[in-house]
Amino acid sequence: MKIKTSELTGRALDWAVAMALGAEINGEGFLELPSGHFVNKKSRYYSFKPSTDWAQCGQLIDEYLGDVTRMEFTDTHWVASCRALTVDDFSIFKVQKGETPQIAICRAVVAAKLGEEVDIPDELVEVEA
């Protein structure tokens, strides 16, 4: 199912970040990263959780982020930008908001690498109650 990057949360967001980092789907529905971390679309247990784990999200900051800013006047509070493209001395950044800094950072990386919409397995889409 296609989901707007700006609406990704939870396992769906972690899955999209893994895809942005080049993870590959194995035969059992796992996304595996070279680090050994994984996201499983069939189970709630998975080891790659940058949207909630600062140790994993911090690695994204080191590698991808140009800026993370707290925005007091918005309802989502955090904004992150990630360089999507550089031509000569000109850079294009993708900017995303999030309820937490980790969510904003993860969305910015996904937007920069995969675009404004991402294909997410139906099993990972969280239904709002």
Detailed description of the structure:
It is a single chain. With 129 residues, the protein is α+β, with helices and mostly antiparallel strands. It has one domain (2-124). 28% of the residues lie in helices and 30% in strands. The protein is built from three helices and eight strands. It has helices spanning 10-20, 54-64, 101-114; strands at 2-4, 24-25, 30-32, 38-40, 65-70, 78-87, 90-98, 117-119. Helix 2 (54-64) crosses helix 3. 34% of the residues are buried.
- What is the strand arrangement across the widest sheet? 2-3-4
In percent terms, what proportion of residues is strand? 25-35%
Q: Tell me the radius of gyration.
A: 14 Å
Distance between the termini: 19 Å
Indicate how many domains the architecture comprises: 1
Shape verdict: globular
Give the SSE layout.
Blueprint: E1 2-4, H1 10-20, E2 24-25, E3 30-32, E4 38-40, H2 54-64, E5 65-70, E6 78-87, E7 90-98, H3 101-114, E8 117-119
Antiparallel strand pairs: 1-8, 2-3, 3-4, 5-6, 6-7
Pfam family, one: Phage_P22_NinX
InterPro entries: Phage_P22_NinX (IPR019701)
Protein name: DUF2591 domain-containing protein
